[in-house]
Design brief:
This protein is α/β, with parallel strands linked by helices. The chain has a single domain, classed as TIM Barrel. It contains 9 helices and 12 strands. The chain has an 8-stranded parallel β-barrel with strand order 1-2-3-4-6-8-9-12, surrounded by 5 helices. A two-stranded antiparallel sheet has the order 5-7. It has a two-stranded antiparallel sheet with strand order 10-11. α8 packs across α9. The protein is globular and about 55 Å long. The two termini are 16 Å apart. It binds zinc ion.
Length: 289
């Protein structure tokens, strides 16, 4: 099944709690995924709200993910403990909410070579997973592909860590891959190559971030509305539908839910193109032969 949602509380939702955002995502937007943003500082969510989110999401079939604070460095020797602490604090709440993934930005190369950085990240991710296991948390850690040259996280690097550490999953940020590759995602073949690389991990579902992105010399500058960026959505959707990939598409564009709904309309258009009907539901690919 295709799942679609946005990263954070919808802009058009009057209530500003995560609980309000979840109900709005389901009831007003008719979407079935939400990535909650704990991105700045140490986030605190009351147990009561987390348990409500858990119950509401499972009763209404909304898939939840959590984004941990942006500044984490699993490669920097001095920052490991603080980084692990930040991730664990997000993971504890995520687990209470029944979220599937805690998304993290892995770290920076700093003075290390690419290979040394990879090794540090593998070592520290294993350390993190031990703590997660000791706390008996079911939520998975997701490593995001990153859009700047000085930041660890090309698609190949992320796959390498996921191969070496059990229970780590990739978070495929297409805008970041596109920026890092200086505009490398244009055709269906380009997107197919990304999914082909990921086959080695045997994933049953792909968590994908989508946004338009402005970039220069292989570096992301900022996020744009999807239609203002130069990474096309249609070839990605064609690849997903043709291969029947199970995906969760999260809009990270500045337009948040407006672009999530745009993604949904594009998916439905692609389904209608294949069925010849004038109606489609993004959750249902069964009528495509
Ligand atoms: Zn991110």
């Amino acid at each position: 099944m295709i799942r679609i949602g946005q990263a954070g509380i919808p802009l058009s939702c009057k209530g500003r709690t995560n609980k309000d955002g979840l109900i709005y995502t389901k009831e007003i937007l008719d979407l079935n995924a939400l990535e909650i943003q704990f991105v700045r500082g140490l986030y605190v969510m009351e147990e009561e709200e987390a348990l409500f989110m858990n119950e509401y999401a499972s009763e209404n079939d909304v898939e939840l993910h959590v984004h941990a604070p942006y500044y984490i460095n699993l490669a920097g020797d001095d920052e490991i403990d603080l980084s692990i602490e930040k991730i664990m604090s997000s993971a504890m709440i995520a687990d209470k909410m029944g979220a599937k993934t805690v998304v993290i930005h892995p770290g920076y190369y700093g003075d290390k070579t690419d290979d040394q950085t990879l090794k540090s990240i593998i070592k520290n991710t294993k350390k993190l997973l031990k703590i997660l296991k000791k706390e008996k948390l079911k939520v998975k850690i997701g490593l995001e592909t990153m859009g700047k040259q000085r930041v660890f996280g090309s698609i190949d690097e992320i796959i390498e860590v996921c191969k070496k550490v059990n229970n780590i999953v990739p978070v495929i940020d297409m805008g970041h891959i596109h920026a890092r590759g200086d505009g490398c995602l244009k055709t269906q073949e380009n997107f197919a190559e990304i999914f082909d690389k990921l086959q080695v991990l045997n994933l049953d579902r792909y968590l994908i971030h989508l946004t338009g992105v402005l970039y220069q010399n292989g570096n992301e500058q900022y996020h744009l509305p999807i239609r203002k960026g130069d990474m096309p959505l249609a070839p990605l959707i064609d690849e997903i539908i043709d291969k029947r990939y199970e995906v969760t598409l999260i809009s990270e564009s500045p337009l948040l839910e407006h672009d999530a709904v745009y993604i949904r309309l594009q998916v439905e258009k692609a389904i209608m193109k294949r069925t010849g009907k004038d109606e489609a539901d993004y959750r249902d690919l069964s009528e495509i032969s």
